[in-house]
Amino acid sequence: MTCTLADDAYLIAAFPGVVVRAPEKWLINTVSALPGPYTVTMQGVPFVYPAVAEDSTGDIRDGLVSLFGGQMLAAVSPVGLSAFTLDVLTPEAATITATGPANGSITAALIGGGDTNAASRAFWLSRAECGLPPCCVVTCAEDYTLMHAALTAHLLFTFGNLGGTGTGANDFDSMALGPASLRRGANSWQTSPADGDFAKTSPGQLYLSLRARYVFPFFCG
Asked: Which of 20, 62, 91, 98 has its Cβ near the most Cβ atoms within 10 Å?
């Protein structure tokens, strides 16, 4: 049987919380002034400025900026003579497109924010490979792929300090906030000294559960 390692898309599908997102910043640039509709669509909502022959690129930009003034999805700021930025107000991925009377007469480009930890995910996907048990004993190839993703997610949650709600709060024995307190219970994973660390995150527990299905003669270093 051939074992397949997880890639970034598989990792995100299995554990969406590994992605750290920042609010996106888009640049909308009016490249040329032509008569016809200039449309910027954000999250499926179209904002259309019907340009006329007398309009300049700045007039078209100003018309679009005015249209965006009544929405609550993004903050709008003029840039230069013919462009403006959209600062999306939530960290979720935004779908923004721009079309004009001719190809390239207006453009939309992501210039900031979005997925901010792709390099970190790539690093831990690579490092997790050496922590996997040997493929030769695994009888279900999907188990091996999921083990790789789970181990990677565990490493990201442990060392990447992900999530404002404590997803990656790292090690703790007890935590208190005002009158509320939380104490970590004892775990029952005692096959090896490292198992207690795996059991501190949900992906780590899944890794242990998958590994427990098989009897491995050795582990890779």
From this structure: 98
Looking at the structure, tell me whether residues 130 and 111 fall in a common domain. Answer: no
**What range does the domain containing 183 cover?**
8-18+117-211
Report the 3 state secondary structure along 52-88.
Answer: CCCCCHHHHHHHHHHHHCCCCCEEEEEECCCEEEEEE
Which amino acid type is present at position 140?
A: C
H or E segment and range at residue 176: strand 174-177
* Angle, CA 144 vertex, CA 20 and CA 158 arms, to 5°: 35
* Amino acid in the structure at residue 27: L
- The identity of residue 174, as a single letter, is S
Other Cβ atoms less than 10 A from the Cβ of 190: the count is 10
**How many Cβ atoms sit within 10 Å of the Cβ of residue 32?**
13
Report the alpha-carbon distance of residue 133 to residue 141 in Å, rounded. 13
Helix, coil or strand: residue 134: coil
Q: Answer yes or no: is 45 within a domain.
A: yes
Residue of 156 and 1 predicted with greater confidence: 156
Q: How many domains does the chain have?
A: 2
Residue 188 to residue 29: CA distance in whole angstroms: 58
In this predicted structure, the answer to whether residue 182 has a pLDDT above a threshold of 80 is no
Identify any residues that bridge with 109 across adjacent strands, giving them in sequence order.
27
Per the domain annotation, does 58 fall within a domain? yes
* Nearest C-alpha neighbor of 84 from the set 47, 114, 54: 47
For the chain, the residue count is 221
